[in-house]
From TrEMBL:
Gene source species: Cavia porcellus
Bilayer topology term: Single-pass type I membrane protein
Coiled-coil zones: none
SUPFAM superfamilies xref list: Concanavalin A-like lectins/glucanases (SSF49899), EGF/Laminin (SSF57196), Fibrinogen C-terminal domain-like (SSF56496), Galactose-binding domain-like (SSF49785)
Alphabetized CDD domains for the sequence: EGF_CA, FA58C, LamG
GO biological process, one term: nervous system development
Cysteine pairs bridged by disulfides in the record: 932-959
GO CC list: membrane
Membrane-crossing segments per the record: 1231-1255
Cellular location(s): Membrane
Protein name: Contactin associated protein family member 4
Residue span, Fibrinogen C-terminal domain: 586-637
């Protein structure tokens, strides 16, 4: 005893000191359970598959002992050998240790650990849910320890060597550490149960706790049931090998509908091994734990509301007088350590206490059914059995379970003839395939969905011309019409066929079977599979005998974001359809995180799905992105109409609630990312005050995201009881801070934008002061508007190789994704690194054309690289995204094809890091990155690089130079301009508008209308300005010009464009009487004009045509709808232009005018049509006649002159007044600047107007508008006229209709 305690003390010291030998250092048990269990066992407790000699027997396999040959070695070294220990009784085992054979070259490098209560039906111990093997020794004498988390409770242990020193043989010495395990056990026979009646006082009103362990071979049965008189009940039921916790609250208090909580946990629990269950009902919280898997659930009501009797039954439903609304079986198996709120139920039953009523026969020891299962480990596995039964019949039965859809279950040769009989699994169905000689093969199909992991029974009987196949009790009969001697006794091959070296006709069209079999019976005799294991019966390959190694790879479900898990024997698959996510485990969002990110992919305004936290737990939601110079996200709610409030007072307050198209968590994530958010709140009042002036208490208020009462109103900062007019000092009564507090009997309002992000969005408004006579209020809340994405541009510049930023350890144990942008001119450098004890991740620029992702999760280092034909160190932004999950690792750079590395089968899966995360460098300060990193995100969480960079030497916050990468998004002559975070497109010198200068500007003109752009006026003023016009025309001569425009018309002749000079030179673009497009240049006053004629089709066909004219001194190139014409004129320059004479055809076309559409008119740096329709600065534009802006694009098949409709861009919300053109607006805002050229555009108005362009908005708003038009009563119309606020409402709507 003394020696044993010393050994234990030394061992504990050794365990503490030699932590480097422990593969996983975990927190030990809270109690002392580390005694050595093997050293004191007698020789008879050791057994093995074989032994090399008597001195290599299993009894010599004790740790650090040298007796015999110094350890156990089997007769042959193969994977069917094992070393077994009998601990005498069930013990708790907390760790194991292994060693090689003393002073030899015999050691095991990896092994399996199996355990059992009876020495039969072994179960494999697994780490991390998927690790099957333990790493063993690297030499003969060092000791390798493993802490078992969770611990094993078993009597028998078996070590199965998998790999060993290739220069020696298998050799082992072992030790097992743990302590005694005490338990109370009861055996229920499927007809028995226990009923426990308890005192009401003993029941805790706060919590209900039930804990137990069970083991069974039956897949169905009631474990516990507690019911009440009104139908309420709590039931724990085993169904198809899974545990279901059902909580049903019926007509209990408070009255509610029947609520059924149905929680499911566990799988394959009918494996005749112990499984632990813990149920905790704490108020509204339910914790349901099965083995290592936990389910937390929050209920709507308290459990005290359940109307339940003060009795609970275990193993069945013990009160037959009570109605049970569902079919059920009693539990058949063993229960252990059954506690209800701390009461030991089995101990009470043993002592025959009166609180316990025993129904049926029970025993207080656990019987051990002796069924021997087989595991077919691979598609090469098989079992061959020879039978000596009668030749004229076949009789075989067995049970199997698998996840695979296909595999050979049984093959037998037909006797005397060259046929065969195959029983196989195909697409989850059983197929019997006969190859009778001289006949076509015949198929019999039975069953379906047999690859569900459940045990299924199969029975096959054939005699003479009759055949019967039975699957799970369902019989399929057939008459194959074979002769009386057609059937064989012969050899039966189960699960597969041997290699070709055997002279066998066995072949399978679907490959081998992977799964378990048991209860194999031939000619009604059960096959002794232990004799097969010992080699005295049949032969086999790649089998695990006396163990079913099936595991449920979908428990827990590693498919994220609602992905559906399916599995085969060796792996699982995730179906990500309709989840919004992609990847092997549905980890990565297919949507961008903000409107800003969509904008920088070149997307225009429209509806988009946004996933604010990327691969995080929040799902995507739909919103509208308005792409202006910055991107605005617009999130609607259900209360966007004006709402009137009367008869509200403090005792009967009015409360209006707002529900958004996104959850509060999604909104919060969106608001947190945004640079700025705002929401317009308009409060209209007539004798309705916001504040009680006597005591300062609020009379009306609103509630935001933080659920706090807010008393400041639109436009104000978060100062209590302030409005915009109070800050600006212009309230209608200067003794109040808000207009409404003046308490006037006419309508007034306090309106403005709320912009304090932490309080947005508004979720509720409360009004209490409309109860007096003639007192009334109304409110209108606009959508939530959020601008920009501060995390998208969050960046840092790394200036030295030794500089880096450090952040807390990255936790991405099962799924990890990292994404960022970088730009650099360096040849190489590490972007990011995080280390563990052995695990690590690293992303680096390995060379100018290679980005590499390297990692180790315990299976050895892996690396995958993306190679590019172009260089990454080109000082342009490049996007990197890496992901590592249980199934694979991947890396993608920009739009290059991703590289993927599959994870090793049944390897380590947990990425365990413990150091700081280094960004831009490494812990060794070597191979650091020089350049910029931007928008770094780990599992959807953005790191604030700028904040950390401000306090880190060698690193600067921010990074300039975005136009080099994003400048190509600016089109049609737009210029990219840098911003501190991001860029914008300057469209001032482009004929186009919009965020990327891609929105075409088009116009229709009334009869006799014109636009004249005169660049000659005020030339002396503009000469000194920086305008493009002045700089371009400062030399008073024009030796080149480039003109682009698009047109559509059906009228001939027509004048499209005319330019004239002070001298007698001009350019005219006309459509001749025959429909030809003509470009007439007169560059010499003494000659007739040169004419370029396009006669390949009529250009007055109502279609849109694009024209590009490029003159370089005397050479003109014209491109019309991809048809290019070049003409060489005299080598001359055109001097300054002035009005002049024109040729007859030009004059005729000018007299006729133009009916149609002209768009995108650009003369070098001047955009005359844009200056007329969108006057930002004073421009030398003269407009006469009826001018409207609209699109030249029309639906096919309609008449070109009747397609268009006027469209005012001032207000995108209500109906457009078609009689009110934009002419006066343009005239009123136009002015004159200096210049040189006059451009005259004659256009007639199309008869009708175009529909509003935002087609995408139709679907979402059509239903809402229909509802709103019904709900907004005539009173709202009266209110609008009373307030005279029609214009104000339109102004509000303008913020979000585009």
């Amino acid at each position: 005893v003394n020696m044993r305690s010393i050994t234990g003390a030394v061992l504990k010291t050794l365990l503490l000191l030699s932590t480097q030998n422990w593969s996983k250092v975990e927190a030990g048990n809270s109690y002392d359970c580390d005694d050595p269990l093997v050293s004191a066992l007698p020789q008879a407790s050791f057994s093995s598959s074989s032994e090399l000699s008597s001195s290599h027997g299993p009894g010599f396999a004790r740790l650090n002992r040298r007796e015999g040959a110094g350890g156990w070695s089997p007769l042959v070294s193969n994977k069917y050998q094992w070393l077994q220990i009998d601990l005498g009784e069930r013990m708790e085992i907390t760790s194991v240790a292994t060693q090689g054979g003393y002073g030899s070259s015999n050691w095991v490098t990896s092994y399996l650990l199996m355990f059992s209560d009876s020495g039969r039906n072994w179960k494999q111990y697994r780490q991390e849910d998927s690790i099957w093997g333990f790493s063993g020794n690297a030499n003969a004498d060092s000791v390798v320890y493993y802490r078992l988390q969770p611990s094993i409770k078993a009597r028998f242990l078996r070590f199965i060597p998998l790999e060993w020193n290739p220069k020696g043989r298998i050799g082992m010495r072992i030790e097992v550490f743990g302590c005694a395990y005490r338990s109370e056990v009861i055996d229920l026979d499927g007809k028995s149960s226990l009923l426990y009646r308890f005192d009401q006082k003993s029941l805790s009103p706060i919590k209900d706790v039930i804990s137990l362990k069970f083991k069974t071979m039956q897949s169905d049965g009631i474990l516990l049931h507690r019911a009440g008189p009104s139908g309420d009940h709590i039931t724990l039921e085993l169904n198809r090998g899974k545990l279901f916790l059902l909580i049903n609250s019926g007509s209990a208090k408070p009255p509610s509908t029947h609520t059924l909580i149905n929680l499911t946990l566990g799988s394959l629990l009918d494996d005749q091994h112990w499984h632990s269950v813990l149920i905790q009902c704490l108020g509204k919280q339910v914790n349901f734990t099965v083995d290592e898997h936990r389910h937390r659930f929050h209920t709507q009501g308290e459990f005290n509301y359940l109307d339940l009797d003060y009795e609970i039954s275990f193993g069945g439903i013990s009160a037959p007088s009570k109605p049970v609304s569902f079919p059920h079986n009693n539990f058949h198996g063993c229960l252990e350590n059954l506690y209800y709120n701390g009461v030991d139920i089995i101990d009470l039953a043993k002592k025959q206490k009166p609180q316990i009523i025993i129904m049926g026969n029970v025993s207080f020891s656990c019987s051990q059914p002796q069924s021997v299962p087989l595991t077919f480990l691979s598609s090469r596995s098989y079992l061959a059995l020879t039978t000596f039964s009668r030749d004229d019949e076949i009789s075989v039965s067995f049970q199997f379970r698998t996840w695979n859809k296909a595999g050979l279950l049984l093959f037998s040769e037909l006797h005397l003839v060259s046929g065969g009989l195959l029983l196989l699994l195909s697409d989850g169905k059983l197929k019997l395939n006969l190859h009778p000689p001289g006949k076509l093969p015949s198929d019999i199909t039975a069953g379906g969905g047999l690859n569900d992991g459940q045990w299924h029974s199969v029975s096959l009987y054939a005699k003479r011309n009759h055949l019967t196949l039975m699957v799970d009790g369902h019989v399929t009969s057939a008459s194959p019409l074979l002769g009386p001697e057609s059937y064989s006794g012969g050899v039966y091959y189960f699960g597969g066929c041997p290699e070709r070296s055997f002279a066998s006709k066995c072949k399978s069209p679907v490959g081998g079977f992977q799964g378990c079999m048991r209860l194999i019976s031939i000619s009604n005799e059960l096959v002794d599979l232990i004799s097969v294991q010992q080699g005295s019966l049949g032969n086999f390959s790649d089998l695990q005998i006396d163990s079913c190694g099936i595991s449920d790879r979908c428990l827990p479900n590693y498919c994220e974001h609602g992905g559906e898990c399916s599995q085969s024997w060796s792996t699982f698959h995730c179906n990500c359809t309709n989840t919004g996510y992609t990847g092997a485990t549905c980890h990565s969002s297919i949507y961008e995180q903000s409107c800003e990110a969509y904008k920088h992919r070149g997307n225009t305004s429209g509806f988009y799905y946004i996933d604010s936290d990327g691969s995080g737990p929040l799902g995507p939601f739909l919103l509208y992105c308005n792409m202006t110079e910055t991107a605005w996200a617009i999130i609607q709610h259900n209360g966007s109409d004006i709402t009137r409030v009367r008869n509200a007072h403090p005792e009967n307050p009015y409360a209006g609630f707002f529900e958004y198209t996104a959850s509060m968590e999604q909104l919060q994530a969106t608001i947190n990312r945004a640079e700025h958010c705002e929401q317009e709140l308009a409060y209209y009042c007539k004798k309705s005050r916001l504040v009680n002036q006597q005591d300062g208490t609020p009379r009306s208020w609103w509630v935001g995201r933080t659920n706090e009462t807010q008393t400041y109103w639109g436009g104000s900062v978060p100062d209590p009881q302030k409005c915009t007019c109070g800050l600006e000092g212009n309230c209608i009564d200067d003794q109040y801070h808000c207009n409404c507090d003046a308490d006037r009997s006419e309508w007034t309002n306090d309106t403005g934008f709320l912009s304090y992000k932490e309080h947005l969005p508004v979720t509720k408004i409360v009004i209490t002061d409309t109860g007096r006579p003639h007192s009334e209020a109304a409110y209108k809340l606009g959508p939530l508007l959020c601008q920009g994405d501060k995390l998208f541009w969050n960046s840092a510049s790394f200036n030295t190789e030794a500089s880096y930023l450090h952040f807390p350890t990255f936790h991405g144990e099962l799924s990890a994704d990292v994404s960022f942008f970088f730009k650099t001119t360096a040849l190489s450098g590490v972007f990011l690194e995080n280390l563990g004890i052995t695990d690590f991740i690293r992303i680096e620029l390995r060379s100018p054309t290679t980005v590499t992702f390297s990692f180790d999760v315990g299976n050895g280092p892996f690396e995958i690289s993306v190679q590019s034909s172009s260089q990454f160190n080109d000082n342009q932004w490049h996007h990197v995204r890496v992901e590592r999950n249980m199934k694979e690792a991947s890396i993608q750079v920009d739009q290059l094809s991703p590289k993927i590395q599959a994870a090793p089968a049944d390897g380590h899966v947990l990425l365990q890091l413990n150091s700081q995360l280094f960004v831009g460098g490494t812990a060794t300060r070597q191979r650091g990155f020089l350049g910029c990193i931007r928008s770094l995100q780990l599992n959807g969480v953005a790191l604030d690089l700028e904040e950390r960079a401000t306090v880190t030497p060698g690193v600067q916050p921010g990074c300039r130079g975005h136009c080099g990468s994003y400048g190509k998004l600016c089109r049609h002559g737009g210029k990219c301009r840098e911003k501190p975070s991001g860029f914008f497109c300057d469209c001032s010198s482009s004929a186009f508008a919009g965020p990327f200068c891609s929105d075409e500007i088009s116009a229709y003109f009334g009869s006799g209308s014109s636009v004249i752009y005169n660049l000659q006026e005020n030339y002396s003023l503009s000469k000194n300005s920086s305008s493009h016009a002045a700089s371009f025309h400062g030399d008073l001569k024009l030796s080149r010009e480039m003109i682009t425009f698009s047109f559509r018309t059906t009228r001939t002749p027509s004048l499209l464009l005319y330019m004239s000079s002070f001298y007698k030179e001009y350019l005219s673009v006309i459509i001749a009487r025959n429909g030809d497009l003509q470009i007439r240049y007169k560059l010499n006053r003494y000659q007739e004009p040169d004419v370029i004629n396009f006669d390949f089709k009529s250009m007055a066909d109502g279609q849109l045509h694009h024209v590009k004219i490029n003159r370089e001194e005397g050479v003109v190139a014209v491109e019309v709808i991809q048809k290019i014409c070049r003409k060489l004129f005299c080598d001359c320059e055109s001097p300054a232009w002035k009005h002049s004479y024109v040729d007859h055809d030009t004059a005729l076309a000018g007299a006729q005018g133009f009916t149609g559409c002209l768009s995108g008119v650009q003369l070098s740096h001047v955009a005359p049509l844009k200056a007329a329709l969108r006057p930002n600065n004073p421009a030398p534009v003269t407009i006469t006649g009826h001018v409207t802006e609209s699109s030249c694009v029309a639906p096919a098949g309609t008449d070109a002159t009747s397609r268009e409709r006027t469209h005012s861009f001032a207000d995108h919300s209500g109906a457009v007044d078609e009689r009110e053109p934009l002419t006066n607006v343009i005239k009123g805002d136009s002015a004159v600047i200096g210049g040189l050229i006059a451009v005259v555009i004659f256009i007639l108005l199309c008869i009708t107007a175009i529909a509003i362009r935002i087609y995408q908005q139709k679907r979402l708003y059509k239903r809402n508008e229909a509802k709103r038009s019904e709900n907004v009563d005539s009173a709202a119309t009266v209110l609008k006229s009373e307030l005279n606020i029609q214009n104000a409402v339109n102004e509000n709507q303008k913020e979000y209709f585009f």
